[in-house]
Amino acid sequence: MTDALELDALWDEFHRVVNMTSQELSAWLRVSEADDDTEPLPDQAGDPLGQHVLAILQKRRTDLTDADIEAMYKVVDTVTAHSDTENEPEAGDEHRRHRLMTLGHDPLKPG
Hints:
InterPro entries: DUF3140. The chain has 111 residues and is mainly alpha-helical. The protein has five helices and no strands.
């Protein structure tokens, strides 16, 4: 288990890199999986990690599980690795942007 100081730092870093609200992420997960004829149920939209991020955004820090903490580390590591200033996606790099948005990070969102 993560100690309190490490958990506080992880919580802050997770919420820094996940710059989409739970509503924005939920809508994105549904849109990204929709096709011309169907749209997935809200609780079934998106990949498992994106759904886990959404669940974490709706929790208090004291309610985190070990699986939540593991997912938070994965999201922070992934977004950080793909979002350094030299490699920040540009407006035309939709595939990369959409991958990051599935984790709750919109690289084009100001902030």
